[in-house]
Amino acid sequence: MQVMKWSVIALAVAAGTSQMAVASSQSESNGFIEDSSFNIFNRALYFNRDFRNAAPGAQSYVEETGLGIRLLFESGFTQGTVGVGVDAHSLSSIKLDSGRGRHSTDQFGTTGDGRGDDTQTEVGGAIKFRISDTVLKYGNQFTASPVFSTDDSRILPEVATGTLLTSNEIEGLELTAGRFTAMSSQTGSSRDDINGKAAGLTSANIIGASYSFTDNFSAAIHRSDVEDYFKKTYVNLNYNLPLAEEQALNFDFNAYKTTGDGDELYGEVDNKIWSLAAAYSLSAHTFTVAHQRSSGDAGYAYGVDGGGTIWLANSVQMRDFNGKDEKSWQARYDLDMASFGVPGLSFMARYVRGTGIDNGPGSDLDRWERNIEAKYVVQDGAAKDLSFRVRQATYRADEGFEGGKLDEVRLIVEYPLSIL
């Protein structure tokens, strides 16, 4: 299957010279300052989680509120054959409400006496070069590769340190390659504090290609080698089938194959996992069903390669349904209230059930999760793009597996401001 996909991409490259744009992004550069942008992104997060079957003496409840402020500057590129630019960021967290007995929502670092840090700040930057439609960036950056993806599920995101090359020389084809040597967590300010289960990121080499064959059909393949942890291959097929006015079907297939590498610091991780989602949209309504299946000697492993490195249909609010031999189904409904005269207001509800989980000799465990979400985005005026979101989750699992009984509520307020 991989050989076929690479052959298709090779044919696309060979045939794509005639599709190259007459004017490249670099030839249209207005300059370092002229194309620059400066944005402030604010996120406030209230988070509580109730561990309903916590062991006696263990923490049974966490509840914290925090504010994250991100200053993001992206310069343009200097003019000429080779354009040069810089990106810079400052990430700050402010603890608004917490307590030693309620700490540990993964929003703040932990002090020596077990409390959440009052404030934290991390600064970083990257230098970038552009030739034609190819960009090389080195330094601190946010990544969104299926095999190396920084997480942004709390008030601040993870940040990776390394080199990333992205090329869009041929219309519809994007090629990526990179090497990363450090990753900071969502609660830390040092360059390499995302330790997970072991000693932190050693190095990760990634390569990938995605190609849009038509406006409705695309495919992708990505690979990674995370030294002393594992090697991964990811494939994606996405097909959109327009049916009639305001009606369409979408099919999205995602799959990973992971094998251990070197010292296997995560332990045995040989795994195959895939998901297939089908979504039917009808005006304001979208109905989705998905199936996901895991096989191999262990469940799907990720984290040291970024907390967002799980591009699967049944990776939802609290759990990923990626256990050993786990089979899971999802039913989901989305409603966009714009069709009913309330633009910016939307609702979502989903239910996921996993079965057949192998968690030890003779085990055949089940679990389920339900998520409900409402979101409103201000459409105009001084508060344009200010958003309010409430998310509730209920999770239940057979005794002895991943938390057992959990209830969770998140209230999220986001306000992006564009200064330049």
UniProtKB/TrEMBL annotation:
Recorded superkingdom: Bacteria
Name used for this protein in its record: Outer membrane porin
UniProt-listed Enzyme Commission number(s): 3.4.21.-
Keyword hit for Transport: yes
Transmembrane segments: none
Family recorded in the similarity comment: Belongs to the outer membrane porin (Opr) (TC 1.B.25) family.
A GO term, aspect molecular function: porin activity
Transport listed as a keyword: yes
Primary enzyme class: hydrolase
Position of the signal peptide: 1-23
Region (Disordered): 97-120
Record-level GO cellular component terms: membrane
Keywords: Hydrolase, Signal, Transport
